[in-house]
Write a sequence for this structure.
């Protein structure tokens, strides 16, 4: 059995969550503060040059490893063990049903046999892992098993990045799973009210990842090619700036007076349209006809006006999610700055939560 780096397993503390995305690298370290309370020890981010990571693929190992080294040093941590994430599009997941009571060896053989039916690559080219979910519905003699497989080279690229930065990868998760774990911690209704249907829109630089959950179980996932880079490109064209200058001025709010009317307004309209289209597609492609709560996350979630226009267009209760809600903050964490950056750390926080199983 080729193992995907304990994809579903527990990890040993202490552990850093390290999220490598198209736009940058984000690091989170959490600690147990006692009485079921977590403490945010430190967090940090480092931008990546354009083209270093494209569509989840590491295109420039040296640039990404250097960014990881810088973000580790900037954070001030001494922890060397990391949990990394794989883009959902790079991982094949499948829930299968197997006979209950199999030994570990028998289970591995059965999983490999089943995996060969669903994976369009030779098994020696993939990293494979599985997790026993429990007794199968309506069949007490069977059990549900989740298998996950990714191209070995994709996994090894991320492991090599960590090693080049002087770190050790001990957990490899799926980014969407990590994001949902972070959201579930702060959204009581997901685990509390079984009939609540919750949608999470993670709006990144290039891609928006949509997850819809009912009672904590994922019922729908999709990606759409829409993100904050579209607004940055509009700024580049309108004001003759480099991409990096445009990105910095966008974040700082340092743009001409006509920016809001000419560029930001149309971008927000487009973003709201993308969200409403995604929701309609969910309705038409599943038996579901409602969403009770909508959450925004990702680097674009705090763009001024986005939450209001999404709530207005969708007519759904909407909120921007902070994965650190309810946590204690270590002395070195600046609360005001954290509030402005927190939605971008959903995946990194979810990865850091793997420290606690």
């Amino acid at each position: 059995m080729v193992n995907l780096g304990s994809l579903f397993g527990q990890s040993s503390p202490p552990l850093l969550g390290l999220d490598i995305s198209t736009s940058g690298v984000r690091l989170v370290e959490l600690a147990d503060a006692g009485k079921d309370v977590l403490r945010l020890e430190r967090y940090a981010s480092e931008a990546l040059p354009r083209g270093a990571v494209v569509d989840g693929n590491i295109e420039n190992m040296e640039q990404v490893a250097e960014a990881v080294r810088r973000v580790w040093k900037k954070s001030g941590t001494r922890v060397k063990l990391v949990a990394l994430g794989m883009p959902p599009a790079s991982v094949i997941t499948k829930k299968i049903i197997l006979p209950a009571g199999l030994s570990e060896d028998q289970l591995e053989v059965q999983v490999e046999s089943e995996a060969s039916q669903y994976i369009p690559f030779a098994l020696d080219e993939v990293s494979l892992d599985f997790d026993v979910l429990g007794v199968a519905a309506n069949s007490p003699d069977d059990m549900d098993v989740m298998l996950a497989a990714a191209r070995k080279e994709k996994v090894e690229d991320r492991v090599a990045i960590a090693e080049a930065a002087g770190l050790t990868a001990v957990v490899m998760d799926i980014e969407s799973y990590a994001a949902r774990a972070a959201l579930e911690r702060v959204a009581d209704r997901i685990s509390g009210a079984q009939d609540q249907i919750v949608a999470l829109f993670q709006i990144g630089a290039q891609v928006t990842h949509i997850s819809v959950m009912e009672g904590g179980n994922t019922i729908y996932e999709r990606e759409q090619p829409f993100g904050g880079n579209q607004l940055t490109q509009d700024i580049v064209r309108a004001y003759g700036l480099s991409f990096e200058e445009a990105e910095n001025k966008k974040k700082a709010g340092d743009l001409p007076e006509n920016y809001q009317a000419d560029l930001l307004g149309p971008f927000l309209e487009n973003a709201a349209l993308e969200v409403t289209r995604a929701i309609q597609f969910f309705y038409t492609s599943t038996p579901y006809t409602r969403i009770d709560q909508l959450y925004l996350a990702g680097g674009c979630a705090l763009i001024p006006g986005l939450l209001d226009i999404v709530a207005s267009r969708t007519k759904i209760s909407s909120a921007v999610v902070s994965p650190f809600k309810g946590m204690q903050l270590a002395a070195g964490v600046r609360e005001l700055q954290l509030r402005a950056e927190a939605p971008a750390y959903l995946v990194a926080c979810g990865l850091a939560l793997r420290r606690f199983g």
